[in-house]
Amino acid sequence: MAQRLMVRRLLSLTPRTLPPQGPLAPCAPPGRLFGTSASWRSTFNVQDGSDFQDRVVNNPKPVVVDFHAQWCGPCKILGPRLEKMVAKHEGKVLMAKVDIDDHTDLAIEYEVSAVPTVLAMKNGDVVDKFVGIKDEDQLEAFLKKLIGA
Amino acid sequence: DYDLIIIGGGSGGLACSKEAAALGKKVMVLDYVVPTPLGTSWGLGGTCVNVGCIPKKLMHQAALLGQALQDSRKYGWQYEEQVKHNWEVMVEAIQNYIGSLNWGYRVSLREKSVTYLNSYGEFIEPHKIKATNRKGQVTYHTAETFVLATGERPRYMGIPGDKEYCITSDDLFSLPYCPGKTLVVGASYVALECAGFLAGLGLDVTVMVRSILLRGFDQEMAEKIGAHMETHGVKFIRKFVPVQASMPGRLKVTAKSTEGPEVFEEEYNTVLIAIGRDACTRNIGLDTIGVKINEKNGKVPVNDEEQTNVPYVYAIGDILDGKLELTPVAIQAGKLLARRLYGGSSTKCDYINVPTTVFTPLEYGSCGMAEERAIEEYGKQNLEVYHSLFWPLEWTVPGRDNNTCYAKIICNKHDNNRVVGFHVLGPNAGEVTQGFAAAIKCGLTKELLDETIGIHPTCAE
């Protein structure tokens, strides 16, 4: 998809009506606040390869990794739903979000073809995965299996 | 390091790379989009996917749906709301789709084990290129064979204010705000298609034309397209060229007549420049390795096997001198080239009788020669032209234009009345033309056409 690189340049071209927040630039919001402070700690956006290494691969706790994209409709539904289910477990499992356009190398390394793809990682290994949207019960079962096993 | 390095990840480049990789070769593709003066850039896939055919057809469809909504009341649909169009919603939906295509190409390259670099490639010595990525990091790569598939970018006018204030098709399809009152400069199919759908979405559109419409296309058809657009609200200013774009308040354009001293001045929200496209061959080090280009237009002359004057360098797609600028042509050329290089094939790309369609509000599909070209080739006395106006059944109830849709075939009397040119102006022209292109490839004659029973009720019959 198209990106606009020079925000300042474009904004200087008034007086045309420009949207107040500026052009469409892909920006992943920080982990969505979902009421409880536990969710703020349980979900994070992966910054780069070494961040992934530190916070996902080397994490003593199990981590679900949500590979998503700006242009993917189902991802926008699954993301918040998964965050909510993860938050319910109060820190026993964490959630990492990876935008596949920003971190393509990572997506390729983990063989992501379609999005959303969710991996369950424990001790650096992929122990489970699913592709596409799931409802809350299915997500709960997925998380329970990851934590319990 | 590689068997094949392809510079350019568009329709041609990707098709060639996947075919070569399927034949077991070690392939690399470089794709890099130099941002527009406004800063617009895009992902893997080339012009067609990002700023060409795909978004164009989707926006054309958006405009057609607007027309359909108008027609629907005559067919009995009743609704209270006033229908209006939201530009931002359309652009977001289209850009999301394009994003999925960009990703799809990344995945398919990976699946075929093609190495992909989002870097700008330049030749620095024979068989070796320098690749620079967005962050300025440089790597070097060598290959036995190279394919140039760098495509083109819109040309600017070279007048004051063009790069600062005007946009091109590169920017239009992801424009974050509605273009509003628009001036389209140019009479190419890009200009007319864009003017067409912008008007169809309800915008105030003016087209500024230096001389003729759709140069290179059948002129009778071109004039009919223009006439239809005019009756549907697109303003045309013929025989004028812009000389300045400035921004004293709104965007002001000053233009001069090509025939006299008259000057024209008007203000617009957006000026879209669509006067032509230039091949991206100037800054990739071709002179370093001796590849000749046509200095006038920057295009690359090749033999009928797409080989340049340097034996290990080939070229495909829009950059070829004297060949058609169409995605399916580039794809076909790329695939066949890979098969000839590595698959032992000798099939060459056939550039004759390639069908095409212009997606103006009234669509124009054609295959074979324009009437002017046929007269040049065969002589007027040796040709017979069969033509007809027609009124699509679906247009009768809503009372849409009668005597506007038109079809003609140009036959060579000395060759069994062989069809050498097929032209149709009407809805779904692309869908209609495709089948006839296959028939023309099989040597369609007037007699065969007469013997083919029509499907009723359709425009195609």
From TrEMBL, chain A:
NCBIfam families: thioredoxin (TIGR01068). InterPro entries: Thioredoxin (IPR005746), Thioredoxin-like_sf (IPR036249), Thioredoxin_CS (IPR017937), Thioredoxin_domain (IPR013766). Keywords: Disulfide bond, Electron transport, Redox-active center, Transport. One of its GO terms (biological process) is cell redox homeostasis. GO terms for cellular component: mitochondrion. Pfam families: Thioredoxin. This is Thioredoxin, mitochondrial. Residues 32-148 form the Thioredoxin domain. Belongs to the thioredoxin family. PROSITE patterns: THIOREDOXIN_1, THIOREDOXIN_2. Gene3D superfamilies: Glutaredoxin. It comes from Calypte anna. GO terms for molecular function: protein-disulfide reductase activity.
From TrEMBL, chain B:
Signal peptide: none annotated. NAD(+) binds at residues 186-193, 276. Residues 2-334 form the FAD/NAD(P)-binding domain. Its EC number is 1.8.1.9. The active site is at residue 456. Keywords: Disulfide bond, FAD, Flavoprotein, NAD, NADP, Nucleotide-binding, Oxidoreductase, Redox-active center, Selenocysteine. FAD binds at residues 57, 121, 318. Binds 1 FAD per subunit. InterPro entries: FAD/NAD-bd_sf (IPR036188), FAD/NAD-binding_dom (IPR023753), FAD/NAD-linked_Rdtase_dimer_sf (IPR016156), GSHR/TRXR-like (IPR046952), Pyr_nuc-diS_OxRdtase (IPR001100), Pyr_nucl-diS_OxRdtase_dimer (IPR004099), Pyr_OxRdtase_I_AS (IPR012999), Thioredoxin/glutathione_Rdtase (IPR006338). Residues 354-461 form the Pyridine nucleotide-disulphide oxidoreductase dimerisation domain. It holds the Pfam family Pyr_redox_2. Disulfide bonds join 48-53. One of its GO terms (molecular function) is thioredoxin-disulfide reductase (NADPH) activity. Its cofactor is FAD. GO terms for cellular component: cytosol; mitochondrion. GO terms for biological process: cell redox homeostasis; cellular response to oxidative stress; glutathione metabolic process. The keyword Ribosomal protein does not apply. Belongs to the class-I pyridine nucleotide-disulfide oxidoreductase family. PANTHER family: GLUTATHIONE REDUCTASE (PTHR42737), THIOREDOXIN-DISULFIDE REDUCTASE (PTHR42737:SF6). This is thioredoxin-disulfide reductase (NADPH).
